What we know:
Keywords: Iron, Metal-binding, Signal. Pfam families: JmjC, zf-C5HC2. GO terms for molecular function: histone H3 demethylase activity; metal ion binding. Residues 203-371 form the JmjC domain. Residues 1-23 form the signal peptide. Strands 2-1-3-4-11-6-9 form a seven-stranded antiparallel sheet. It is α+β, with helices and mostly antiparallel strands. It has 17 helices and 19 strands. A hairpin with a 6-residue loop joins β13 (467-471) and β14. The protein has helices at residues 8-19, 62-82, 116-119, 129-140, 157-160, 201-206, 276-289, 291-296, 310-315, 360-372, 381-389, 398-425, 446-453, 503-520, 545-554, 656-671, 673-677, and strands at 38-44, 55-60, 148-156, 236-240, 245-249, 256-264, 267-272, 321-325, 330-333, 338-343, 347-354, 428-429, 467-471, 478-479, 495-499, 579-581, 614-619, 625-630, 632-634. It is 27% helix and 15% strand.
Amino acid sequence: MIFVSHHWLILFIMLHMFLKSPGWNPPFALNINCPKRFQTKDQSIHRLQEGISFGDGKAYTVKEYQEMATEWSKDWRRRRYDAAKPDSQSSPATTTTSNPSHDSSASTRTSSDVSNDTLQSPPTRTMTPSALERDYWEIVEGQSQEIDVDYGNDVDTTELGSGFPISDWGRCVNSPNFLSTPNTATNGEGGEEPEPKFGTEQYYKETYWNLNNIPNSKNSVLRHVKVGINGINVPWLYFGCLFSTFCWHNEDNYMYSINYHHRGAPKQWYGVPGTKSDADGVERVFKNYLSVKLRDVPDLMHHITTFFSPRILYQEGVKVCKLLQNEGEFIVTFPRSFHGGYSLGPNCGEAVNFALHDWIPHAVDANERYRTFARPSVFSHDRLIYTIAHHTNELRTKEICDAVSMELRRLMGEELLLRTKLIRSGVRDVSQDVDLPPNRLDQLDEESADYDDKRLCHSCKHICFFSAVACECSESKVSCLRHSHYMCRCVVKRRYLLIWTTEQEMKDTISRVEKRAEEVGYANSAVSAGSSQVPKAPLEDAPGTEKDRAHHCTYEVPVDPICSLEPEVPTLISSDVSCSSSGSKDVPSLKDESAQPQQDLGKTSGTYPSTLSTKQDTTDVSGSNKSANVNNSCDSEGVEPLEGYPSTSDDGELTKDANREMQKAQIDVIFKPSDMTSTGVKQEDGNDSLDASSDDFSA
């Protein structure tokens, strides 16, 4: 995979083309019957522009969340689309708002037009991405309705499991046999096993397109991080429902991210290129619209709770792209690029970070920004740079060596300058008298991370990797060399300097990197040495855009859950069992059209939607107990019927058609058990000619 531009839309298209190749069909490894629950966030969609924090939503199992999300999408479709009359000229599904926020001249696709195709599309009763996009921004900007949804974001894959299978070769942190240097498997004789054949079960376990593995790929600098960090080198799962939103943000430490859509309804993405001018433009919009809020919460942008319309960004001169992500598609975001979006229905995605060597200049910017806001970094920037420098054999081009060498010289220059100033001011150098544990430079493991946590600067939260200032008044407080004067009010002579890395060690490290640069020489490389080389030409529509625009206005968004909501083996129902519906659900409905004015459609009070079901024990043919979601109550003794199972007539007897369906289901249970437990889609014929070497994330 070649990274040729910091215009992230280009990479969207490249990955989209790869995944449309025949044969790509990874198994969905998530255990959808897992009884563990995950916590959600309660998002007030109509208040996303206010920058308010999200409260906790309900806790769900995978099936419970899918049931809730499916019911919510169906209810929206029924009220907003199915109820619309074909001859209506002003139904909720077809009416365009007069709100200036939806003026087509101000919308953006690339630098010119992001949503003109959706806002100017002809009236339709079909719930298309274009129609839902119009509904969404009417809620966010026009506050036409008060909508709250539960969003299952940042779900821990170490607890619930990943949607991708786990490597047998130790290529991911969560693998039971995680290797000190993952990437290869040996054949027992010192040689390496060949890469698995494309499309095989082993391939999906070991490929670096598996999000568990990509942080440890051969050219990702995160492979030196041997401790699992959720969301960084350990993927997070995301369970979305209609209008659940991931707000404007860029990644921790300005890293790359890769997001895979496992199953379900599409996601609408918006993205801003990672150039300094565009990133500064996004921050300028935050300051202009939320100046009062930012005074109270200076690091509001890092909270990921605010979502402005692309129209507003475009008015500020910020380039904006948009893309619809479907099942089986990856999206990659580049360093510092802002992105956000929302789901169009029930879905499940997964995301993780990775970093190439061209990320280093962006990492410097991120590190400085974190120190400004006193925000702890997920790992030590200085440690990672020095760890990279101690693996010179992995620095494959002179451009990469130059980037590493430049950062090493910057770090050394600041360290030596501040050390000299502090010693002259009266701070004592006790490095010769104190035996400090040396910095480990071969990898960043859990022990190293724990030690780094103990030497955070009290002022800026920077990890003091090379040296730190301490004072006799405290046994735990330390400061970086920049902020020692903020540490305490003691006289300077009580402070002392702790040094882990000497001047000579720094110089030797730089020499090794520069020697490596001479060895590799100049090579043809697509790796950028920094953001200064990012092209400044206006963004242009990618190939196939017109086709995607048409798809955006005609494709009917599915409302189906990502998995079957029925238990693996349905309970057999006797024809003489009389059941009646409880008639109540936890999900509040939109107000009745017949009883309320048209403009009140969709008004709710409280969290919307919420848990749908209760729990009941059922027994499969082997006699083991299983948990099932049910929405019916039983008036007489016997087994409660499953939701969606054949219903009874008014007198309590099963209808003939229902009885026939029940008998057919019973036969399927006995003779076709595999059909009832299948969780994946039909495997297409593999395409062995597809270049599996794309696993190598080479620059």
